[in-house]
Amino acid sequence: LCVAAPVAVSACEGECIVGITNAFLGNYSSPIGSVLGEIANQISNELIPPESRTSTPFKYLTPLVTIYNKQAYDALETAIFPSYFHGKCQNPETGVDPAGCPSPNCPVVCGTPGSLIHFYSKLRTIAFEETTSMLKNLTSPDSDSFKGVAKAVMADMHSNSGLAAPPRHVGIPVQRRAQNVTMVLEKIMEQAPMLLKKACGEGQAACSWEVKMKEYILSFP
Questions:
Q1: Which of 38, 50, 90, 200 is surrounded by the fewest CB atoms within 10 Å?
Q2: 106-161, pLDDT tens digit by residue?
Q3: Can you give the C-alpha Rg of the chain in angstroms?
Q4: How far is CA 27 from CA 20, 146, 200, 210, 211, in A?
């Protein structure tokens, strides 16, 4: 976990928002890598003829990973901050912060480190649900990422034999073969959200990082 130097603010803004969003993205890199690695191996084993298989099946998911890297930060930041944790904690009638606000443990949903600490279970859930949603969207058959993966798979299916069909596909028209490949690929890739849930465990226990994240959050005033 990379800790950036905190800035003097009374709410989580600027470097605080960027730092916390990037911390969750970094934390999720391991479980997401595990999920995508499993999917890549399935693609290789179920769709690529033995003579065309590569020692790095993860390459088929390059289109998906590229789009994820472009979209993930903005999607996660929006889900955490403007969408849930935002605004001042002050009582609108008195203009006074409740006890524990802005830090270290603020019992009001607002845009301060103390609020993120108090409602950490919600923060953790937002990060998990948004990450799951991104994976679901990126593995959807109508997404550009799915189409890019399908194109890469089709290219390697025939890489060692020009346009000739693999033995198990001999006699099947090219268009139908492409449809069959897409159907199998869809079944494989739709597992991504479920595999992430499995990797994170019951109650997202393996995707909580509560102790380190709370320490990091409180490094911002």
A1: 50
A2: 999 999 999 999 999 999 999 999 999 999 999 999 999 999 999 999 988 866 54
A3: 22
A4: 11, 24, 11, 11, 13
Residue 100 corresponds to which amino acid? G
Residue 123, pLDDT score: 98
How far apart are alpha carbons 155 and 149 in whole angstroms? Answer: 10
Residue 102 contacts residue 89 (beta carbons within 8 Å): yes
Contact of 173 with 180, CB cutoff 8 Å: no
Q: Can you read off the two tokens belonging to residue 49?
A: 């003829």
For residue 95, which amino acid is it? G
Question: Residue 14: CB partners within 8 Å, gap ≥ 6?
Answer: 7
Q: Do the beta carbons of residue 61 and residue 149 sit within 8 Å?
A: yes
Q: Which residue has the higher pLDDT, 174 or 74?
A: 74
Are the C-beta atoms of residues 117 and 211 closer than 8 Å to each other?
no
Alpha carbons 152 and 150: distance in angstroms, whole number: 5
Is the pLDDT score of 163 beyond 50?
no
Residue 205 contacts residue 125 (beta carbons within 8 Å) = no
Query: pLDDT class for 64, splitting at 50, 70, 90?
Result: very high
Cα angle 152-158-188, degrees, rounded to a multiple of 5: 45
Q: 9 or 114: whose pLDDT is higher?
A: 114
Amino acid in the structure at residue 49: P
Work out the average pLDDT over 58-69: 97
C-alpha neighbours within 13 Å on the C-beta side of residue 184: 17
